[in-house]
Amino acid sequence: MFTGIVEELGHVVATQDLPDAARLRIAGPIVTSDAKHGDSIAVNGVCLTVVEVENGTFTADVMRETLVRSSLAKIAEGDKVNLERAAAVGQRLGGHIVQGHVDGTGTILAREKAEHWEIVHIGLPPQLARYVVEKGSITVDGVSLTVVNVSEDQFSVSLIPTTLDLTTLGHRLPGSHVNLEVDVLAKYVERLAVPHLRAIAGEEAQ
């Protein structure tokens, strides 16, 4: 589990194509300071398992399912990435509950600069729209954010200077793809509620 509070802006050192997978080597001296084989590190919001740690870098394998669902399929050497180690029991939950299981990708549509913040508009895949609500939480490239506005096909978030300076969201231009993870609590509520709602609808139809 993660919190969506990015610890470090790392970069991709190397990529390797494998059969139905890919292997990434990523530089991040903070997240690798205590990392070992088998640990979890979120890369742009994708939970990856550490295969090897060496000289401030770590290697991780990305399976086909992850490549299909996330922007990691197009990642290249030199790209900057948001990094976060798995949450430790007892630490403060600064963001929200993040699994590192990307639900899909969105596209940066526009950016509006203000004096002390920036509003970013992001395209929302239809299958995820029902899980996104105004003032609710969403994870964008591994960053826990609060939704400002939402419609059927897009939502907006407001980014403070710290987020702009210390994460990839400060560098994403319109047209860029970002990883999205909706609040898992919304999915569980839907899963539990739908059968009861259908039963009620069936009773009313009789």
From TrEMBL:
Pfam families: Lum_binding. PROSITE patterns: LUMAZINE_BIND. Gene3D superfamilies: 2.40.30.20. Its EC number is 2.5.1.9. One of its GO terms (molecular function) is riboflavin synthase activity. Keywords: Repeat, Riboflavin biosynthesis, Transferase. Homotrimer. This is Riboflavin synthase. It comes from Lentzea alba.
